[in-house]
Amino acid sequence: MAPLQKTLSKTDRVCVYDRLGEGKSDKPAPVTLQTMDDTGALLFEVFDRLAGDRPSS
Question: Residue 41 and residue 34: Cα distance in Å, rounded?
Answer without folding.
Answer: 11
